[in-house]
Structure formats: structure tokens, C-alpha cells
Specification:
six-stranded parallel beta sheet; Rossmann fold; 281 residues; alpha/beta; 2 domains; Pantoate--beta-alanine Ligase, Chain: A,domain 2
Length: 281
């Protein structure tokens, strides 16, 4: 595995592979890698000739009171995982490389960045879209892989890629979960033992809503959302940021489930972590 820290370095590493017509798959990450990231890498490995991974804790997607300083940084373990999974090129830039002095250009994907996490994390998706576009321009992949765990991010990146006519295929990979159902996340390590014990109730609540729709025919979104809130309140004691049922294509609130175009998404503060999860109907 080749590791590069500069823009010129990563471009030079990929240029001969691109010249040979090889298909380049890209997995952008913020590090603290886990099995969810490994699943993205394996998907890229199966579908592409070359796999590039980036590790960059992007400061522009963190708000003033958020966890940028304490976000887990585990570069040695991350490199070992990438090596084990067959990554060809690892890109680890510094903040000064990505945002040099005088940097002044940002990308905003309107509408899709406003609901759900965008409501409680203003500016977050502006930072996400900006860094992903920069990474796309630097790496120039044929395909990029994102997890459905961060559904709003995936939907927003697809829209940006389409709107800006980028020649990149965006692939969504299903959420990887712990054996008890908790969606894998780098922030799960913030959970104390008691919060970790309660955390699977988030996915349980989503599954209950799915069963109510599929088995009992419940289509009223307000009723399904209230059922989820009740389960979370009863079994976690966490502070709910949001529980919303929206359209997959526009992330707009729904009054009734639209089969094939419905996202049930939630965010809950539990212990020292803000956990997100979702399912699609």
C-alpha cells in the first residue's frame, strides 16, 4: 500500500493506473476506521481495479461546540486495516493542504442540507460537500463509496455529483451493524457501558416501525414516528434530536409512507454520543 500526504503525490500515484484504463474506486473517510469502512473498501475492491482511501478529519464540517478536537484519530490502526483490506493508495492530507491560507470557496447543496441533521448542525453539510468535492477533484475516481448509515450525506453527495456533472458513480453500501443491531460508527466509542447497553434500542425502534408498516399496514407517518419516540424514551433515556419520516428523493416530510421512497431517520443524544440511524421503506 502506498501512502501519500500531498495532492501532487496522490495524483502521481494514480496517474499511471488511470492511463492504463483501470477503474479507480474511492472511499473517503475521517479515519477511526471500523468494519463499516471495511465493507466500503471491500465493495470497492470487488468492483474496481484500484482502491484509494482518504483519511482526513475535516474541520469545516464541525460546529463550534462539536467534537472536532476529541474526534478519534487512530492512524496507525487505520493504516493496518487498509493494508489488510487491499487498499492500493492511502491519502492522508493535513488541514493546511486541504485548506491553505486564503481559502475562500465552499459548496452548498440547497434544500437537501437543511432538514434532519442539517437543522441541528448548521453548516455541517456545507463542509461535507466542500471536502468531498475537493477530494473528488484530487483523486478523480470512477466510483465513490458511501454508507447508508449516513443517508442524508449519501443523498446529498449524489445530488451534488449530478448537479455539477461529475463523471463519478456514487454507490451506497448498506449499514453495517454490531451483533445487537447498533449501527457501527466511529463515535460509538464515546458511549459509556450503560449507554452502550441501551443503544440498540434505536434500531429496535426502527424495526418496530417497519413491522407496523409491513405486517399491520400502518402508513400514517406521524403514528409511526410517535411509536419510535415512545420506544426510544422508554428504553434509552436519551435526548431525541429528531425522529422524522421523509422522502428519499427530496428529504421532504411525508404524511403517509410512500413505498420505495421513504426514509425513517433519527438522531439521539445518548451518553457522550450523538447517534444517528435510519431505515428505508
Amino acid at each position: 500500500m502506498q501512502t501519500e500526504h500531498t495532492i501532487a503525490g496522490i495524483r502521481a500515484a494514480l496517474a499511471p493506473r488511470r492511463k492504463q484504463g483501470e477503474r479507480i474506486g474511492f472511499v473517503p473517510t475521517m479515519g477511526a476506521l471500523h468494519e463499516g469502512h471495511a465493507a466500503l473498501i471491500r465493495r470497492a475492491r470487488n468492483e474496481c481495479d484500484v482502491v484509494a482511501v482518504s483519511i482526513f478529519v475535516n474541520p469545516t464540517q464541525f460546529g463550534p461546540q462539536e467534537d472536532f478536537e476529541r474526534y478519534p484519530r487512530t492512524l496507525e490502526a487505520d493504516c493496518a486495516l487498509c493494508e489488510h483490506e487491499g487498499v492500493n493508495v492511502l491519502f492522508c492530507p493535513s488541514a493546511s493542504i486541504m485548506y491553505p491560507e486564503g481559502y475562500a470557496t465552499y459548496v452548498a447543496v440547497e434544500r437537501l442540507s437543511e432538514p434532519l441533521c442539517g437543522r441541528s448542525r448548521p453548516g455541517h453539510f456545507r463542509g461535507v460537500a466542500t471536502v468531498v468535492l475537493k477530494l473528488f477533484n484530487i483523486v478523480a475516481p470512477d466510483v465513490a463509496y458511501f454508507g447508508w448509515k449516513d443517508a442524508q450525506q449519501l443523498i446529498l453527495i449524489r445530488r451534488m455529483t449530478e448537479d455539477l456533472n461529475l463523471p463519478i458513480e456514487i454507490v451506497g453500501v448498506e449499514t453495517v451493524r454490531e451483533p445487537d443491531g447498533l449501527a457501527m460508527s466511529s463515535r460509538n466509542r464515546y458511549l459509556d457501558p450503560e449507554s452502550r447497553r441501551r443503544a440498540p434500542a434505536l434500531y429496535e425502534a426502527l424495526l418496530q416501525a417497519r413491522r407496523a408498516f409491513e405486517q399491520e399496514g400502518v402508513t400514517d407517518c406521524s403514528a409511526l414516528a410517535q411509536q419510535i419516540r415512545n420506544h426510544i424514551a422508554q428504553h434509552t433515556g436519551g435526548r431525541i434530536d429528531y425522529v422524522e419520516i421523509v422522502s428519499l428523493d427530496q428529504l421532504q416530510p411525508l404524511t403517509s409512507v410512500q413505498k420505495g421512497n421513504t426514509l425513517i431517520a433519527l438522531a439521539v443524544h445518548l451518553g457522550g454520543a450523538r447517534l444517528i440511524d435510519n431505515i428505508r421503506l
